[in-house]
Amino acid sequence: MSLPFSVQGQSVSELEQEIANYNIEIQKLEKEIAEQRLKVEDTSKKAASLQSVVNSLNATQKKLDAEISRTRNVIGKTETNIEKISIEIVDKRNKIEITNGALSEAVRALNVLEDRSIFEMIFSSRTISDFTKDLVNIQKIKKTLGKKKVELINLNEELFTKKTESETEKENLEEERLKLVGQRESVEYTKKEKDSLLAVTKNQEANYKAVLAKKEAQKKEFQDTLLEIESKLNILVDPGSYPSAIKGLLGWPLDSIYVTQQFGGTQFAKTNPGVYSRPFHPGADFGTPIGSQVRTISDGVIKGVGNTDAYPGCYAWGKFILVEHDNGLSSLYAHLSSILRSPGERVTQGTVIGLSGNTGVSTGPHLHLGLYATQGVFVGKYAAQKKSATGCASTDATGVFADLDAYLDPLSYLP
Fold first, then answer.
1. By the 8 A CB rule, do 4 and 70 touch?
2. What's the pTM value of the predicted model, to 2 decimals?
3. What is the pLDDT of residues 3-37, one digit of tens each?
4. Which CATH entry fits the domain spanning 1-201: 3.30.200, 1.10.287, 3.40.395, 1.20.120?
5. 204-412 belongs to which CATH class?
């Protein structure tokens, strides 16, 4: 990866200037990202048409390109900071060695003087003045010894601080590199999305409407199939195994919140379709541009990941992540463009685990957030849940399945 600034063989002051240059560049890019984000939001909120979707994808790509440039600069800044800290660590170690040497010398001198008894010092001294000088020297050496000990303790503490800073910077560096991989993936996905859309529609609005209608039908088929599977699971869910709905118990999954569809997975909603736009919507949808950072809503462990788009004919969640939380709840993040975490990985609330997208059976860029009682949800194969020669069941695709009683309304737990 090429960076705009060099970090080889420079002094601490030069590296500090390097870091200042990176900060200036990062601020410029953050302003550009904010401008592009507004353009994406503006085009996304316009009436659904082929041109508005293409415009939105173009704006999204520009925003992602700016984010990639910013991330590269953050990586460069972090690497420069690590270089600066490394020099400071070497400097501290050299000072510790010098101080250690002076300390050892002082101890040796003190030992020589203190090995002589007071009577030896009196009789070996030619005059009272010589004897007094010996006593003064002992006091000076002891004072020097005390100063050097304090200096050594302070240097060791500074060294420990610098090492901790270096370790933190290295962790930050890995996070930024991980983010860069995801952003690149999201850019590639956005390009393919646009190319595919234009190829299928041949730039005709009527064709686009037909594509949209087909996606809506696929979405309904997926929801009906999922409902059919999960209606037969009959997993016993203990209401005491997870917390009651409390506003603010969980954190938002995105930095910017725009709810496009609420939860509709309760038995009441299925028997009273008029309450929601659909009789069964197993989560909450948040409209957000492709490539938005998706954050986990609570502490937990990545229970599973998958990509149903990798299996032709499987119209489902696309790229998804299931997180099992420490409080008896589990959350699903679906339609992602990039997955940044692996199964078994420990995450805390607010950790970026993926980037939003439009994968799977989706009619526009958004994040689907599902919430479950952990007792009643699992990751499994569609083929094992529904014996069928069509759809996801005819593939080796992995999905998330839950007993109907395990579904919870995410918005009841969010701030």
1. no
2. 0.81
3. 444 445 678 899 999 999 999 999 999 999 888 88
4. 1.10.287
5. mainly beta
